[in-house]
Amino acid sequence: xxxxxxxxxxxxxxxxxxxxxxxxxxxxxxxxxxxxxxxxxxxxxxxxxxxxxxxxxxxxxxxxxxxxxxxxxxxxxxxxxxxxxxxxxxxxxxxxxxxxxxxxxxxxxxxxxxxxxxxxxxxxxxxxxxxxxxxxxxxxxxxxxxxxxxxxxxxxxxxxxxxxxxxxxxxxxxxxxxxxxxxxxxxxxxxxxxxxxxxxxxxxxx
Length: 206
Ligand code: MN
Description:
Helix content: 40-55%
Structural class: mainly alpha
Strand content: 5-15%
Bound molecules: manganese (II) ion
């Protein structure tokens, strides 16, 4: 690909889902995935492309758009849509059919070094997800050499504060309301037990 920005007209694209829209059922229904991916996620990508069309930002990788616009006056809408586009792609990859279970050994050892047990780590993820006030995200991150649980509001993403995301759980109401209504804790615990993709988290350690 050319580095000449005048020749680069590719907008940000909506990545394919890594599985069929019914592959996460019954924990997350095909109906939820269809709206979440096909309306919400796609909407963030489309809005971003409209907002940056014809500007310098149009030629930057998505992560760069996020780090260039975070906290900048007048760039809030671009940041929000760029970060939400990134967060959702990361979320779909943080889940998989027949997920849950045990992490790969290299990740499990790091988790036990930081939380003492896998169950303690899962409990901290669940607590962060259920106590996030309003919309946001819960993350397992690598911060230096330590694994931590952090939560962010709205579109915020830990890459803007130098942490390396390993996996995420979307706790915006649109992620669970069709299936769980107000029962966010049931959604989070079902995801952690049945869908969380520890292999993806382990790949992100590298
Ligand atoms: Mn979402």
